[in-house]
Amino acid sequence: MTFDSLGLDSRILIALKNQGYTKPTPIQEQSIPMLLSGSDLLGTAQTGTGKTAAFTIPIIQHLLDGGTPKRRRIRALVVTPTRELALQVAENAKRYSAGTGLRTAVIFGGVGQNPQIDQLRKGIDYLVATPGRLLDLQNQGHIDLSHLTHFVLDEADQMLDMGFIHDIRKLLRIIPQKRQSLFFSATMPKDIMVLSEQILRPNYKQVRIAVEKPTAERVTQEVYYVAKNDKPAMLLELVKSMEGSVLVFGRTKHGCDKVVRILDKKGVKAAAIHGNKSQNARQKALKEFKEGSLNVLVATDIAARGIDISGLEYVVNYELPNIAETYVHRIGRTGRAEASGASVSLCSADERGYLKDIEKLISASIPLIEDHPFAEGAAEEWSDPENRKPKKQGQRAPRPGRGGQPKSKREARPSRGKKPSRRY
Ligand code: AMP
Questions:
Q1: First-residue to last-residue Cα distance in the chain
Q2: Fewer CB within 10 Å, N- or C-terminus of the chain?
Q3: Is the CB of 232 under 6 A from ligand 1?
Q4: pLDDT of amino acid 179
Q5: pLDDT confidence band for 212 (50 / 70 / 90)
Q6: What is the spatial distance between Cα 103 and Cα 106, in angstroms, rounded to a whole number?
Q7: 310 lines ligand 1 (CB under 6 A)
Q8: Helix H or strand E segment including 105
């Protein structure tokens, strides 16, 4: 399939060509025709699959089909959980609608509202927003959603994780009933399905794009066993050996700040993005990282999810995630499009349960690198019987201990799979 065969407006086709897109991605191939025909859509897909274009292109086409109204009204609304994702979605909409005369705006909290109100006053066709600021400006009378024809809820699972359910419910009471709705989520647990059914019309269509493929095929994965206390030193070694941009994942905001302090102290320029950072600090860090003037970005999952950083070479799991799917999201930050990437995980003894869950999910064992400067410390930590107990999701980490027991089965296992990119 080509974009040309979808019956799209020539201005959209030109915009896509200018982006260098030659053919639709699988989610675009499936969704665009359904959406053009007016169906509601439930999409199980994460960022990195091309899902933004999958929903943006048909909406732009419909807006163009609707002609130029006398007064510009908000006809399409995309709601995203984070400011970063909102900016990215709006940026995509601007690119795909370049030359069409449609106007896009993005609004989110944490910054002054006046520039956003000014923009809204000039008239907007396509609005991208985070829930809090959207409702705030709507309450103040700056946003009229009564002409909405298209509604997209993006990253719904994250939206619920972040506690936006009440805002979403409020929003659903405000927007017109007669509309085309699109609902995207990386995962579809029961509460998300229930929410989707409140938003979509009963005859909605579904698309499901598997997440494992891109990671397994294009991202080299490695794991190092490291004692918890050795993680900072190990990270430093790794980061110094990596040529290119490195996205480091921590589990907590505090942990991310600590990593940045450690790297900074040793002369490695790094910045953190997480919910406690100001909007300006986050945007500045992300901009510098994307431009290449900042090599190391340390992020929590929530702050980094959905962020598209083209050309990202390395993902480092400084701490393993306690939800296996999150690992797939993390390493999906690299290896985008045709690029290849590498993911390195530092696993302390108390995180071994997480590693097991991840390997089960991806149906593969991640090659273990045994030859590194901190291997001895790890063996010691692992040998504590308390630390050898498999840890289940959500369980508290046991305190690292000492001892002199034999190596576990997993430790003794030789590395398998692709050759690692570095050796210690
Ligand atoms: P998304 O899942 O929307 O975040 O998209 C992931 C990346 O794929 C973005 O950098 C898009 O610019 C890019 N992309 C989207 N559609 C295509 C396409 N048809 N061909 C090539 N790249 C694409």
A1: 46
A2: N
A3: no
A4: 98
A5: very low
A6: 10
A7: yes
A8: strand 104-107
Domains, the chain, ordered by start: 3-208 (3.40.50.300), 219-388 (3.40.50.300)
47 CB within 6 A, ligand 1: yes
Whether 37 is in the pocket of ligand 1, judged by its Cβ within 6 Å, is no
Question: Is the distance from the beta carbon of residue 177 to the nearest atom of ligand 1 less than 6 Å?
Answer: no
Where do runs of H (alpha helix) occur along 97-155?
114-122, 131-139
Q: What is the pLDDT of residues 66-114, one digit of tens each?
A: 988 888 999 999 999 998 899 999 999 999 999 999 999 999 998 999 9
The pTM assigned to this predicted structure is: 0.64
- Are 54 and 28 in contact by the 8 Å Cβ rule? The answer is yes
213 pLDDT more than 70: no
- Consecutive H or E run containing 12: helix 10-19
Supply the pLDDT for residue 336.
Answer: 63
pLDDT greater at residue 390 or residue 356:
356
**Calpha distance 18→336 (Å, rounded):** 19
Spacing, Cα 33 to ligand 1 middle (Å): 18
Site to substitute for ligand 1 among 308, 309, 333, most atoms within 8 A of C-beta? 308
Dump pLDDT digits (tens) for 119-137: 999 999 999 999 999 999 9
Q: What is the pLDDT of residue 161?
A: 81
Judge contact between 36 and 60, C-beta under 8 A.
no
Q: Is the CB of 333 under 6 A from ligand 1?
A: no
Asked whether 305 lines ligand 1 (CB < 6 A), one says no
Q: Residue 321, Cβ neighbours under 10 Å: how many? A: 21
Whose C-alpha lies nearest to ligand 1, atom 5? Answer: 50
Written as one letter, the residue type at 310 is S
Centre of ligand 1 to C-alpha 310, Å, is 10
Rg (CA), the chain: 23
d(CA 409, CA 33): 51
- Distance, C-alpha 58 to centroid of its chain: 22
Mean pLDDT computed over 186-197: 90
Residue closest via CA to ligand 1's atom 15 equals 50
Question: Directed axis angle between helix 279-291 and helix 83-96, to 10°?
Answer: 50
Sequence letter at residue 203: N
Q: Which long-range contacts (CB under 8 A, 24 or more apart) does 15-23 make?
A: 15/95, 15/96, 15/97, 15/98, 15/99, 15/100, 16/53, 16/57, 16/96, 18/95, 18/98, 19/95, 19/96, 21/53
Q: Does the beta carbon of 337 sit less than 6 angstroms from any atom of ligand 1? A: yes
Atom nearest to 3 CA in ligand 1: 19
Q: Confirm or reject: Cβ of 50 under 6 Å from ligand 1.
A: yes
